[in-house]
């Protein structure tokens, strides 16, 4: 049997078809040469299609084979056009051309006729062989041309692939091991090993994203053909044919550009990556890379976000939901789109059943599970303590040479941060502030910093009344005038020089203090609200907070010595050496003051205050460790003498409101000029804390607040007591160290401008008066 030309068909039609084909090839040849790589993949389906068509044609007659071939052609055409940006401009014309060819060949080859039924099989087989040989030949030639062209345009490098490190969250822990905060930028990710993921979750992902993962290579030709057919059936691109390795390469090494060059590069790199990491390594990296929505990257974070469990604890229903999210995290979000999420979960369960990885019964049970109603957000650390930790680490060059490097390490480096926070003390501090600041229609606020005297560990930080409304941390940053709470440094300086707590000093007001070269000269302070005192012991002058007594004492011991003692005990702020410094005119922070008083509680040993004990990298390597050595800055006898004096402040002086039942408390009140700042700083053997109160808007006098002018012995002392009472609850009371009486110098009268001991003590103390706002009487 032979083919013969059909004389009834005009020759002009054949010539028109040839002209159209030539013109189309001319216009699209550069892209066609590259697309042949994709077209070669269709050959596998083409062989099957032609064979099925021949059988159908031979058995039934008619144009079935041509409809089959036409459908396959249109499928390939549509899939290729969907995957290229070079065609849209002439897409309609090109499709019209194809449709013209299809109509011409709809009833069989044009210009030919059959020679008999028996020849149909022979001719069909011949057509099949010729078609296959032709397609293979075209694909081989075009593929070689495409590869040669791409070899010059696609650079995939040489040697092992260097995958970028996965951005992973850092976690800050409190001192008791509880999670304080999870720190990350855009990617909340916690990488885990493949053996830390529930097997049902691994299988759900494979069945959904790459069912033949363990059988195919870097390219799954069957999936590509299936995707082409699905795209053709729906009229748009609805299914991808990328393997897990290809997806991993696209997400980590390449951009989202849709071009044949990028696709070939993706295939080459995927093959290399599989050889380099192995199938298990690729799958593990993939599960830790993909995005699951709600800010969760990687399957561990996704399991926590949607279900509050680890990836190792996922059940079938949970695994199916997460596997379904990979394709479209926002569209299948169970919180925002529950109906779509439920349908997608069912699709994944059906696939698992179809592949024999889940029985129908458990699948029905999994499909009935309720969807998560809200995302489980880990602690974000929106509080003053965690913010102080952030600032501390971002300024620590051990974490990186530049701020950018430190930020990257903190938010993407997978750090494990062991902080000093005591959660119970932090809650007590927050409660003391929220319940202690009067609500009077003005922006009054307060701050607390608490330190462990034995280690310098900062146990609590509250920098204001409300972190959400003001992130400024008054406990750690800035600084306010400490008022009379600063007198402790003058007291210690005097004791170190051999002064006795029983020494008498002139406390009368006003007092004239020379200030050569300074302004004003002389400096003439007065006692608080005009309180009248005569000769008074250092012990009583401290308890009553007599300004003129301490102004004269500071002049005797030396202002430089006062500043030096303050720095040795823990004040790190700059201290201008001026006569008024003894009355607390230099700004300091509550953390500095709590640390300085902790030195007395520790028997004269200074422990540098720290918020972080240790920072470990994701590999367990120690990056930062607090290894500061304690320093003895005064003798235990001097610390005990100072502590005994400060106890009188709480027992019978200006700080009685700071008393804690069952505990010995030593401390000092402080009130800045014009009632702008008010303090109480105190300690027990196991706790040192400073409370500051002021106006958030600046140095504004706190007068007429709940009917009083705010001083250190009022609201601050009460907040200190409330905090310490709760913080020390459950701890057995301990006594403060007492000085050795035999080492305490004998009392004498102090005379300004003369060495100690040149005067004689008064036979009896003078009668003195003081006002309510100073000491509570």
Q: Strand order across the biggest sheet? A: 2-1-5-13-14
Helix and strand content put the structural class at alpha+beta
User: Number of DSSP strands?
Assistant: 18
Q: Mind summarizing the main beta sheet?
A: 5 strands, mixed
Distance N terminus to C terminus? 128 Å
From the spread of the alpha carbons, the general shape counts as elongated
Proportion of residues in extended strands: 5-15%
Give helix % range: 40-55%
Query: Unreliable stretches, pLDDT < 50, 5 or more residues?
Result: 1-10, 31-35, 37-42, 44-115, 138-154, 762-777
Number of helices: 23
Provide the residue-averaged pLDDT. Answer: 81
Report the C-alpha radius of gyration, rounded. 42 Å
Architecture overview:
The chain has 777 residues and is α+β, with helices and mostly antiparallel strands. It is 45% helix and 10% strand. The protein contains 23 helices and 18 strands. The strands form six sheets. It has a five-stranded mixed beta sheet with strand order 2-1-5-13-14. A hairpin with a 5-residue loop joins strand 13 (612-616) and strand 14. Helix 10 (316-325) packs across helix 12 (360-367) and helix 16 crosses helix 18. The longest helix has 50 residues, at 11-60.
In short:
The protein has 777 residues and is of the alpha+beta class. It is 45% helix and 10% strand. The strands form six sheets. A five-stranded mixed beta sheet has the order 2-1-5-13-14. It has a five-stranded antiparallel beta sheet with strand order 7-6-18-17-16.
